[in-house]
Amino acid sequence: MRVGPGAAGPFFMAKASRSALRTRLQHRIEVILLTSVIFLVRLIPVDAASAAMGFVWQKIAPLTARHKRALEHLARALPEASKAEREKIARGMWNNLGRVAAETFFIDRLISDDARFVLDADGLTNEVLKTGKACIVVSLHTGNWEMCVRPITRQGHEVTGVYQALKNPNADKIVRDLRKDLYKGGLYSKSHETARKLISTLKKGGIVGFMADLRERRGIKVPFFGRPAYANPVPASLARSAGVPIIVGRVIRKRGARFLVEGRGLKVPVTDDRKADIAQATAEMHRIFEAWIRERPEQWMWIHRKWADA
Fold it and tell me: What are the φ and ψ backbone dihedral angles of 261, each rounded to 5 degrees?
């Protein structure tokens, strides 16, 4: 029996249909697990949940390949630290990341509890807090970074955020909803359309928030711990185009689920060389990031491949 060339079409269509079905099933299971975890964790007081998750991550995560990667990055960035010191930093990082994971389920409760927060703000940051003037807030993955824009939202000002969307759209919505009280101006995934929305937001006097310490291959290279690292030039580019300042912020975990939020103003230079202005501002952000990480290395996320040669 001969099979014509068109017979392969139904086969591949059936295969694609089965693949789509598996994806939908996987997404549904992920949503069920995520909603169950959120429900169960929120039955526990936030301090206990934070401590428990930090303890578990600190014990289990060092057994994974990512722990080895963190140690490699620490050895390159902090060669002056001993092997034992780097191991201690990495384990402290896992404890902090576990705490952040648990605290994400309690964002609404955390941001409403003023006793958990202390603010350290310079003049420009205080001006933004007082007036809600247009600016870009950039931060790094240290302490509980989710809380970086909390002082601004607590003053009643809306922040528009940018994030990396999850592949599962239903799970993504759940995670976005957890952050809705922090980003009342909306939370948008990275895209060209989002970039246009952000420019419009800034020109209308709004506030935009970015995590600016992750590796961006399509970005530019800046010095970071003495080595070239990929950096995202978008925050500096938007700030320069819209004529607004940048607030460089961080969150320090002081004790358990209690935090110090720090803000430092940064103005992007405006000369005849736009690229040089953006590169200078982006490098300055990373200079500040590096100084902050050196102060509390156990609170930064060493597992991502930030450097150009990593």
Answer: -110, 125
Q: Give dist(CA 102, CA 111) in Å, integer.
A: 14
The count of other CB atoms within 10 Å of the CB of residue 295 is 12
pLDDT tens sequence across 130-187: 999 999 999 999 999 999 999 999 999 999 999 888 899 999 999 999 999 999 999 9
Looking at the structure of the chain, the number of domains it has is 2
Task: For residues 198 and 180, give the distance between their C-alpha atoms in angstroms, rounded to a whole number.
Answer: 17
Residue 130 class from Cβ within 10 Å (0-12 exposed, 13-18 middle, 19+ buried)?
Answer: exposed
Does a structural domain hold residue 110? no
Over the stretch 274-296, which tens digit does the pLDDT of each residue have? 999 999 999 999 999 999 999 99
CA atoms within 13 A on the CB side of 302: 34
Per-residue DSSP letter, 268: P
**Two structure tokens written together for 55:** 């303890």
309 falls within a domain: no
305 occurs within a structural domain: no
The terminus-to-terminus CA distance of the chain in angstroms comes to 56
Phi and psi at 70, nearest 5°, equal: -60, -40
Write down the H helix ranges in the chain. Answer: 8-41, 46-60, 65-77, 83-103, 107-111, 123-131, 150-154, 169-178, 192-203, 234-242, 274-295
